[in-house]
Amino acid sequence: MKYTILFVVLLLSSCMGFGQKMEGSWKGAVAIQGTDLPIIFHLTAGKDGKWTGDMVSPAQSATRVPFSKVDVVGDSIQVAVQKIGLTFNGKLVHGKLQGVFEQRQFKAPLVLQPFKEQVKKRPQEPIPPYSYDTLDVTFANAFDAVNLSGTLSYPRGAGKHPAVILVTGSGPQDRDETIEGHKPFKVIADYLTKRGVVVLRYDERGVGKSGGNYTTSTIGDFSKDAIAALEFLSKQKQVDTKRIGIIGHSEGGLIAQLIAGQRSAKVNFVALLAAPTIAIDSLMLLQAYEIGKVQGLSEGELRRAKEINRRNFAIVKSPAKEQQAYQQILKNMSPVFPNPSQQQENELKMLLLPSYRYFMRIEPVPFIKKIAVPVFAVFGTKDLQVPFAPNLESLSDNLPKREGHFLKAYEGLNHLFQHTKTGAPSEYGNLEETFSDTVLRDLAAWIADR
């Protein structure tokens, strides 16, 4: 009997030991449409043995979402957020929580590591009371029957004003384009509204308070959301309908080019912030090369990775059916993953999501050649995600010549228009600056002249 009791005590001690090691903050990232979406879990063990916790996606919002379920048994953990159909099932392996993240039809591997959260200064973030008015709004995308939520900011007093919509970059983004505690779109909206511009920014479909499903949506869908935002903006009493434009960051700038080039909505000007202007597969090759370089890969490793990526992207762009394309990618990856794990297979399958294949097939140049409105286009020389030289050159070569264009690369700025040392995405959260004041001044002055 005493041996049985001893075994039970040791087993319980072992289980408690695993549980205690799970308490605290954990950080990882889920790959969605080629973008890493940061995920943070906070886990707490109560004195009664019950676990509680919450999660936050800092790239989408600073809001903590409580778990509806937290089960810890030995080295295994299961959490859920019932209202959004989210689950994570994992195990503690070598100090990391390794498992599978699921949300409705979306499924991806997720590895979380313990970390200590630090309060980071964001001195540019606007703090109320504001010198202008804001209004939470909802508008409909009638094309897809999706309701979108956002914030309209406008100058006080009578009169008509120039107006813009802000279109976010890749990955699920809220109306402020929140990333690592920075809120660049809130900063931009504040700066412009103080200078007489009406600004509408909104949560992407499936994010924040907006309806719809992000993971199954394509750039075509996001373009229709932007068109709906323009239509809503044009009906506001404060807006001069002859001075309406789009400001798009990164993928949002690509959407602005598509809309302006196809003339699928009435716009009087577009502002492109670090927007891709070359074929997307070429852009992704450059991006992988530049980020790998700052991470310390050798030139030989970079060349090998580039060739493998080039073949993968060609498969992704091809008309091959999903299973056929997947087998081709497995063959291409065999020198790297001769016997891929389930996690590696899941990651490779992400390349074949319909939304990602749609994205990879986009060629911006034909649309750029048809843009007939003034364009403000700026880049940072330390941008590793949209390298400035080939993209600025493509835009300069293909944009029809006319008065009013403003094209410029700013020395030392990264993809978020922060002053930076290397431009690596890992630096974004460590920088206090959210968005360059110089770029903001140039943008506001340019809009004032439209």
Architecture overview:
Keywords: Hydrolase, Signal. With 450 residues, this protein is α/β, with parallel strands linked by helices. It is built from twelve helices and 17 strands. It has helices spanning 2-22, 184-193, 219-234, 251-262, 280-294, 299-317, 322-333, 342-349, 354-360, 365-368, 388-398, 437-448, and strands spanning 24-32, 35-45, 51-56, 65-66, 69-73, 76-81, 86-93, 96-103, 106-114, 133-141, 146-154, 161-167, 198-202, 239-249, 269-273, 375-380, 406-410. A nine-stranded antiparallel sheet has the order 4-3-2-1-9-8-7-6-5, sandwiched between helices. α3 packs across α4 (251-262) and α6 runs antiparallel to α7.
Short description:
With 450 residues, this protein is α/β, with parallel strands linked by helices. The chain folds into 3 domains: 22-114, Lipocalin (Beta Barrel), CATH 2.40.128.120; 133-279 and 362-448, Alpha/Beta hydrolase fold, catalytic domain (Rossmann fold), CATH 3.40.50.1820; 280-360, no CATH class. It has helices spanning 2-22, 184-193, 219-234, 251-262, 280-294, 299-317, 322-333, 342-349, 354-360, 365-368, 388-398, 437-448; strands at residues 24-32, 35-45, 51-56, 65-66, 69-73, 76-81, 86-93, 96-103, 106-114, 133-141, 146-154, 161-167, 198-202, 239-249, 269-273, 375-380, 406-410.
